[in-house]
Write a structure and sequence with these properties.
The complex is a heterodimer of chains A (about 425) and B (about 300). Chain A has about 425 residues and is of the alpha/beta class. Chain A has twelve helices and 19 strands. In chain A, strands 1, 2, 3, 4, 5, 16, 17, 18 and 19 form a nine-stranded mixed β-sheet that branches. An eight-stranded parallel β-sheet of chain A has the order 6-7-8-9-10-13-14-15. In chain A, strands 11-12 form a two-stranded parallel sheet. In chain A, helix 2 packs parallel to helix 3, helix 4 packs across helix 7 and helix 8 runs parallel beside helix 10. The longest helix of chain A has 17 residues. The relative contact order of chain A is 0.17. Chain B is α/β, with parallel strands linked by helices and about 300 residues long. Chain B has twelve helices and nine strands. In chain B, strand 3, helix 5 and strand 4 form a beta-alpha-beta unit. In chain B, helix 4 packs across helix 5, helix 6 crosses helix 7 and helix 6 packs across helix 12. Classes of the chains: A alpha/beta (about 425), B alpha/beta (about 300). The interface between A and B is medium-sized, with 20 and 26 residues.
């Protein structure tokens, strides 16, 4: 059997020319043809009647945990979870052990991904050696080894001078720097968002300013250097305003947020729920509304998962010492569809732009579009399917989600990644 | 007989009926403390463990004596908070105690929510003896017991809580309990020691001690950890005492028969002057006695649940 023929899909393709009902013929890893009707010729057929075909989702911020934390996730399990969530390309952050601060680690990740991955993996390298914030990593060599961008994600580059130099050096290679914005002095050992719920629960608070002062710093540095910077996991109203303002001034700044910042609030922490512990922390209704508005008006370019799988042992502990992070691959699209599209914030077109077209553009990679001769990365979704999220059913090793039991709409049914059918009828088949 | 709960983790979700039942039982049991022979069989055949991850003198002694006066088998475990990160998990420790036939675990822990984690994972009843900055329900119950003894009831009382509310589990438990019982609570301290949006808990917040104490029926000082000064929350202890300390001139603004309270241990001359702490309206020492009575009541009421379960 040669090739794959997707029949009768409703194609939503904001980055490409073909939209509307049609068939998609996949051959040899690329899209051979998109047309209203393509006769079958021995290919495996997928009846996509009632389904919507999207360019495969691109997650420019996730954690695959390999090397070093294979008990939390591996490239094999993580990319399968990603495929189940409709993602066909993922950029994995460098806070592994060892961290991805040398070409050897980048090469290792790429090799493992080629051997065991279910979707395309693009490693993000470190900005500073060991993510320690005191010496620049070999940025050029990391890019040459195959890194797609550089970030110390998981940690901020706390020292302003170091970030200034990193951006300045990156400019000479046109490297994308992704900044995890968190001023450690302002975090001051806090564990949740400062507000009513931190007061009620007696958990040490984190002021929103911890995120915002560093967003402001990055915007000013990028402006002064006339270089680009990308802000990771934006979570506050104030950060959205700072980015909006910077864009209006012509600063070359792009930004992302995650489904949990528009689908949940700090009220989720009630009961000392460690599955709602994440960094930056879940914020308030006001912030949720601001994040939605910023997604609508383009202030926030991308939706990413920040998929951060953890072992139960790191969550079945006191809140103060529990690990930060949410296992996000397998809920991202449904949460976004439910809380953005169903609720009328974004059209599906706009959502696909934030989850596929823009991430491809920010990373400067191919993908994010369904076109003849282009990558055969396709997600097929049932927009009418409502279901209850069941963490136990996750393909990811990380079952850590505050959305277990949540009722959502919009389900990934099939995923074609690099021409290969990776998910069929909701099940991973590779 | 309203108290059917397994655990007492905080006063946030405890009803007025339950609080009244606990306080009534404490009143009955307090008479034991005045007896020549302080021994009753209420807890005979019950095992009680105090599991303290933080230093404590009065709370721990209070629980220990309460269980001994009532004939329980009791044991103490002092665990260092550093073992939380390295050694056995709290859940495993709890399960181990469970399997030794423990009926009730009294836990103190530096991290908010630790008793909740324990309670979810053990069959034994759990009493929170203070968790991080979250709650210290037995302290608030003994405070309410003391207030009720002197004022006849709690409804409509004006209670001024002065000091480090941000880090105080005593403040939070008193707010929940007093609000439930119909009292009015005012909280006072410098902004660095008042947590964000505290007024949404249903209390009046003021940074003027005079305003907070004005017309109060009860004036409660909170213990100030003196190291707060080092972390930038206070310019100096002297400055704190001069603006937020409870002295005789501040107290003149309270009602004439206002009670003076403090959970102890007192930093004399900081939260409260010696003259105020030792004057006749001060019930600081009586609070300690109330503490034993309230803890006897809780140990009895919560382990009684096990009798009913066995009888099923």
């Amino acid at each position: 059997m040669n090739g794959l023929l997707i029949k009768n899909a409703r194609i939503v393709n904001p980055g490409g020319d073909y939209n509307g009902l049609g068939d998609i013929l996949v051959r040899g890893g690329v899209i051979d043809k998109i047309a209203p009707s393509i006769p079958a010729n021995g290919e495996k057929e997928i009846d996509a009647s009632g389904l919507t075909a999207l360019p495969g989702l691109i997650d420019m911020h996730c954690h695959l945990r390999e090397p070093g934390f294979e008990y939390k996730e591996t490239i094999a399990t993580g990319t399968r979870a990603a495929a189940r969530g409709g993602f066909t390309t993922v950029a994995c952050m460098p806070n592994t052990d060892p961290p991805a601060d040398t070409p050897a680690v980048i090469a290792y990740i790429l090799k493992k991904a080629a051997e065991e991955g279910a979707v395309r993996v693009l490693p993000v390298g470190c900005v500073t050696r060991g993510q320690k914030g005191s010496e620049l990593a070999d940025m050029g060599a990391l890019m040459e080894a195959g890194a797609v961008a550089l970030s110390d994600d998981g940690f901020p580059v706390a020292d302003g001078h170091m970030m200034h130099m990193a951006l300045r050096y990156a400019r000479s290679f046109d490297i994308l720097l992704i900044s995890h914005c968190e001023d450690p002095a302002l975090v001051n050992s806090g564990v949740m968002n400062e507000g009513y719920w931190s007061t009620l629960l007696g958990l040490r608070p984190i002021t929103r300013a911890a995120e915002e002062v560093m967003v402001a710093r990055e915007a000013l540095l990028a402006q002064a250097l006339d270089t680009r910077v990308h802000i990771a996991h934006v979570s506050t109203e104030g950060a959205c305003a700072l980015i909006r303002d910077a864009k209006a001034r012509g600063v070359r700044i792009t930004a992302e947020t995650c489904p949990h910042y528009f689908s949940a609030t700090d009220a989720f922490v009630d009961g000392f729920n460690t599955n709602a512990k994440v960094n930056p922390p879940l914020r308030t209704e006001t912030d949720v509304a601001a994040v939605k508005a910023a997604l609508k008006d383009g202030t926030l370019d991308c939706i990413v998962t920040d998929h951060a799988p953890h072992h139960l042992d790191q969550k079945a502990v006191e809140f103060d010492v529990a690990a930060n992070g949410i296992s996000g691959f397998e809920t991202a699209f449904s949460l976004a569809y439910t809380n953005l599209v169903k609720s009328g914030v974004l059209t599906l077109h706009e959502l696909v732009t934030r989850m596929s077209v823009h991430p491809a553009a920010v990373l400067g990679i191919d993908g994010g579009v369904l076109m003849e001769g282009g990558r055969a990365d396709i997600a097929l979704v049932d927009e009418n399917a409502s279901y209850t999220i069941d963490a136990k059913s996750f393909v990811s090793k990380g079952k850590n989600t505050p959305f277990d039991g949540a009722k959502v709409t919009g389900r990934i049914v099939h995923t074609v990644a690099g021409g290969r059918l990776a998910v069929e009828s909701g099940s991973v088949v590779v | 007989m309203a108290l059917k709960r397994k655990d007492l983790l905080g006063l946030r979700d405890v009803s007025a009926e339950e609080i009244t039942e606990i306080l009534d039982a404490a009143k009955t049991l307090r008479s034991i403390l005045e007896q020549n022979s302080k021994k009753t069989p209420h807890l005979q055949g019950k095992s009680i463990i105090t599991l303290f991850y933080e230093n404590s003198t009065r709370t721990r002694m209070s629980f220990e004596l309460a269980s001994k006066y009532m004939s329980a088998a009791s044991a103490n475990i002092s665990a260092s908070a550093s073992s939380v990160a390295k050694g056995e998990t709290l859940i495993d420790t709890g399960r181990t105690l469970d399997r030794m036939g423990t009926d009730l675990i009294v836990i103190r822990h530096p991290m908010s929510g630790a008793p909740h984690l324990l309670a979810q994972n053990v069959r034994a009843s759990v009493i929170n003896a203070g968790d991080g900055m979250n709650e210290h329900p037995t302290q608030a119950l003994l405070d309410m017991f003391t207030m009720r003894e002197h004022k006849g009831g709690l409804e409509g009382l004006n209670v001024a809580i002065v000091g480090d509310a941000a880090h105080s589990r005593v403040a939070r438990s008193n707010i929940w309990g007093l609000k439930t019982m119909g009292a009015k609570v005012r909280v006072c301290g410098p902004s660095t020691l008042i947590p964000d949006e505290m007024e949404k808990l249903g209390v009046m917040v003021s940074s003027s001690v005079e305003e907070a104490v004005d017309g109060a029926d009860v004036v409660m000082g909170l213990r100030l950890q003196l190291e707060r000064q080092k972390s930038g929350l206070l310019p100096s202890i002297y400055e704190y005492a001069s603006f937020f300390g409870i002295d005789e001139s501040v107290l003149k603004l309270a009602k004439k028969d206002a009670l003076i309270m403090h959970p102890g241990p007192v930093n004399r001359g900081v939260e409260i002057t010696s003259a105020v702490a030792d004057e006749e309206r001060s019930v600081i020492n009586e609070q300690v006695t109330s503490g034993v009575a309230v803890r006897m009541a809780l140990l009895y009421l919560l382990t009684r649940r096990n009798n009913e379960r066995t009888a099923d």
